[in-house]
Each structure stands twice: as C-alpha cells, then as structure tokens.
Amino acid sequence: MTEPADERGGEGAAIARAAAALRAGDLVILPTETVYGLAADAANPDAVARLYEAKGRPSFNPLIAHVAGLEAAERVAVFDGRARRLAQRFWPGPLTLVLPVRAPAKVSDLARAGLDTVAVRAPAHPIARALLAAFGGPVAAPSANRSGRPSPTTFEAALEETGAAAAAALDGGPCRVGLESTVVSLLDEPRLLRPGAVTRGEIEAEIGALAEAEADARRSPGRLARHYAPNAPVRLNAAAPEPGEAFLGFGSGAPGPFNLSPSGDLREAAANLFAHLRAADATRPRAIAVAPIPDDGLGEAINDRLRRAAGFVG
Ligand code: TXA
Ligand code: MG
C-alpha cells in the first residue's frame, strides 16, 4: 500500500503510519538523498529476514543501520576519534562507517550477517530523518532494488522493484545524489569499501590516506561483481553507439536521450546514472554503450557502478 504524503492527514501522518509499520515488523519504502531504501526494524530478526527475502539478497551481505545522528550511532557502534570526526563532518549525509558493534547489539545478528561489526549512517533526506525520529531505533535499509539490479532513484522505480513487499511507502521525489553512500571501514586502518557520494579526496582530507578494499569478499561483501546490472549487456568506454545499442553519453555533443550530463558535470551524471540505465534498458536495446567518464572525484564511484553493471569484478 502506498501512502502519498498529501493524502489522509499529510506527511506527518504518513510518517507516523510508516513508523508504526516498522514497529509491527513490516517493511517500508524509504527515500534517502542517495537512493531509495527498503527499511525494516534493525533489531527485529523476523523483519530483517523478510527484507532479505524481498530483495532476493544472499544473507551473508550485511545491511546498513540508519540512525538519526552521531548520538544514536554511538549507542549502536563503538566510535574512535577518526570515526567521530568523519561523522561530524559528513552527517547527516551519504557516508557509511563500518565499526565494531557495541554490546549488547541493538542491530540483530541477521542484519549484520553474523559479523561483530556494524555499518552505520545518518541519512540527510528530511523524510528519512523524520521517520528515524518517529521510530526511535536503528533502521536496516538496503537499496530498494532486488539484489543485483540498479538501485532505485525515483519513487516509481522503488515501487516497481520491491513495493509489493512493503506495507508503507514514502514518496520523497527523485534522489538528489543518485549514487549509494560511500562505505569506509574503520576497523583497523581506514579502508574504502565502496566508493560513493562522498569522494575519496573529501575523506582523506579529514583522516589521511585510505587503504584499498581487500579482494576477500567476506570482509567487504558489497563488492560483488554482479551488482547494479540492467538486463541488457553494458559496453564501457564507447566512443559512439553501434546499431541497436542505447547510448549513455557524457558531455556536449553526445547523441540521444540518455546523456548523463550535457555540461560534463559529474554530480549531474551521478544523479542521472541509475535512472538513465533503467530508461535505456526499458527500450530493450541490443546493448547499452556508455561513454568514458573521467575517474576523478565522483567519477570514481560512477565508474565503479558502471564496471559492476558491465559484470566486471571491482
Ligand atoms: O546509500 C546507501 O547506502 C543506501 C541507502 C538506502 O542508505 N543503502 C545501501 O545499502 O546502499 P546496501 O545494503 O545496498 O549496501 C550496503 C553496503 C553493502 O556493500 C554491504 O556489504 C556493506 O554496505 N556493509 C554493510 N555492513 C557491513 C559490514 N559490517 N562490514 C562491511 N561492509 C558492510
Ligand atoms: Mg544495494
């Protein structure tokens, strides 16, 4: 059942109903500034089990616990100086921190996939913040796509992916950022597990050099090759489309309706990436050809998602 914010008592009432759904162990479609999430009470293993089931996600892939801010995060995870510094600089916002879980664990074992660590993030979207305030506890929310599909960046795409499994759905409009949060592990030396909306340079400016994620998929389980994949094959670094191909261009002069940013702006390209991949895929092309994207700043995260969409190991 969807809950348009402007019906039956307005946005406040829709948020109260969504919080009640979480308390009842039901799932909620939740807008964030990065991508739409499918949310559940992180402390409730039955609700989390239904979340994995709705996504078709392998249960070894742990979930992010969404919290209202640093104070709430410190009830869930153990922060050191660097972690606090990053949270103070980038929260609320698109940065996820992997930290030791605080005992007794307030995020269920299932949501942590059995690890003694927990990923925490305070999202910036006002509707996400309102729901977290109304609910009062950590909320597990993977991207609302079915496993292996591109993350939804519009309300409509989220409903299409996992809306059938949700008891409530909050419409927050198109996602401002359009790429998932950056995931940084602070377990030993700081490590970039997933490039994302906060760039490597922005993080390194706060805490110094970041180590690369290990290839070991158990330590960085989000880095699976088949991730973010549309139905059509994806061809990277294409100068131009071949017959039958859809084309995701970049910069002025690129043809077609799926130009990621006519002005060559990486922020705009990030915001458009998943929506354009979806729209291009819907034309049932022979393949989706993608123009080269510069690898600096946000380009690192864009190219990471594109390599996964093309099926290359990250
Ligand atoms: O922007 C986002 O982060 C979105 C919105 C909804 O907040 N959420 C999202 O969640 O992208 P998800 O579940 O699709 O990705 C979470 C990533 C995965 O790569 C997962 O492996 C990693 O975080 N992760 C979660 N807990 C972890 C842990 N304890 N150790 C290492 N990686 C972890
Ligand atoms: Mg995801």
Write the topology of this structure.
Blueprint: H1 10-23, E1 28-30, E2 37-41, H2 45-55, E3 64-66, H3 70-76, H4 81-90, E4 95-100, E5 117-121, H5 126-135, E6 139-140, H6 155-162, E7 168-169, E8 182-185, E9 191-194, H7 200-207, E10 211-212, E11 234-235, E12 245-248, H8 266-282, E13 287-290, H9 299-309
Parallel strand pairs: 1-7, 3-5, 4-8, 9-10, 11-13, 12-13
Antiparallel strand pairs: 1-2, 2-6, 3-6, 4-5, 8-9
Residues 142-143, 151 line the site of magnesium ion.
EC number: 2.7.7.87
InterPro entries: DHBP_synth_RibB-like_a/b_dom, Sua5-like_dom, Sua5/YwlC_C, Sua5_C, T(6)A37_SUA5, TC-AMP_synthase_SUA5
Function: Required for the formation of a threonylcarbamoyl group on adenosine at position 37 (t(6)A37) in tRNAs that read codons beginning with adenine.
List keywords for this structure.
9 helices, binds threonylcarbamoyladenylate, three-stranded parallel beta sheet, ten-stranded mixed beta sheet, 13 strands, alpha/beta, globular, single chain, DHBP synthase, binds magnesium ion, 314 residues
Explain what you see:
This protein is of the alpha/beta class and about 325 residues long. The protein folds into two domains: about 10-210, DHBP synthase (Alpha-Beta Complex), CATH 3.90.870.10; about 235-310, no CATH class. About 30% of the residues lie in helices and about 15% in strands. Bound molecules: threonylcarbamoyladenylate and magnesium ion. The site of magnesium ion (MG) has 3 residues, from loops.
